[in-house]
Amino acid sequence: MTAIATAQTHKRGFLAGLVGEGIGASRSPLLHEQEADALGVRLVYSLYDLAGAPDGARALSRVIEAAKQMGFAGLNITHPFKQRVIPLLDRLSDEARRIGAVNTVSFRDGQATGFNTDYLGFAETLRRCLAGARFDHVVQLGAGGAGSATARALLEHGAGILQLHDVDGDRAEALANSLQRDFGKSRVAVAPDLQAAIASADGLVNATPVGMAGHPGSPVPAGALRSSLWVADIVYFPLQTELLRQAADAGCRTVNGVAMVVFQAAAAFDIFTGIHAQRERMLARAIEQWSD
Fold first, then answer.
1. Judgement on whether residues 161 and 275 belong to the same structural domain of the protein
2. φ, ψ for residue 280, nearest 5 deg
3. Annotated catalytic residue within 11, 68, 82, 185
């Protein structure tokens, strides 16, 4: 049965949304609503920005409970709540449990279940956008919820050594310890000296929010980049972040966040609706509409 035929079996609409901080410029509503329209399905996708909430954890709990009570199909979760949301859920998928972070919550039969589609989105980015690149030594910036997913994708893709750097050293240590249990101590380490780590790396991944419209700037000094380095940024708005501009100026191979956000959104759409989103259509539309 085709995706469109499957969609036609759904007569009701779907409510979904994104919860995070500083998400006013997010294009997730367009991604989900345009794909629903193309499939002949009614889906309303809203933004719930908790940046002004005096108690983010309490506000998050209220949003989760309200969405459950109001019959939402699900919610996407972004910075800084991908790990904080876990205690509020009834169940976790195996993947979300392994990664230790949730970016997608579904509501079904009175239960809130957490999934991680960031991992799927970044794994697809690596396959599509970095074919032929060296992965002997990769440095990743960020060890939070998104970083947990991208780190696992990098190691499963074949990164020989993955060094983690985070402004919170304890968080980097905790993620390294978790990954070492699955991939071995020889493949994962903390990078306390970022510039020294980048100097010998094949690739650099930014898994922090730095570079987003609400978090401008670059997480690395421009002088640390060189032409033999590939640089991937998971930030997708703007597509050309300050880090990617610096990398392009240095002659680096660069990858923006569009493929990751599209493929994680498509997987979330599947979870919310039970209908298979057309990935290639979503990606082509995003590239056309979001290009500067």
1. no
2. -65, -40
3. 82
Residue 259 near residue 283, CB atoms below 8 Å? yes
Q: How far is CA 5 from CA 10, 11, 41, 287, 291, in A?
A: 9, 12, 11, 26, 32
The residue ranges of the chain whose pLDDT is under 50 are: 1-9
Residues 149 and 74 in one domain: no
From the number of C-beta atoms within 10 Å of its C-beta (0-12, 13-18, 19+), residue 168 rates as: exposed
What CATH number is associated with residue 41? 3.40.50.10860
Is residue 65 domain-shared with residue 128, that is, in the same domain?
A: no
Range of the domain at 190: 119-257
Q: Is 95 helix (H, G, I), strand (E, B) or coil?
A: helix
- Separation CA 245–CA 243 (nearest Å): 5
Say whether 68 is catalytic.
no
Does the pTM surpass 0.85? The reply is yes
Phi and psi based region of residue 117 (left: phi greater than 0; alpha: psi -120 to 50; beta: remaining): alpha
Pairing of strands 161-165, 188-190: parallel
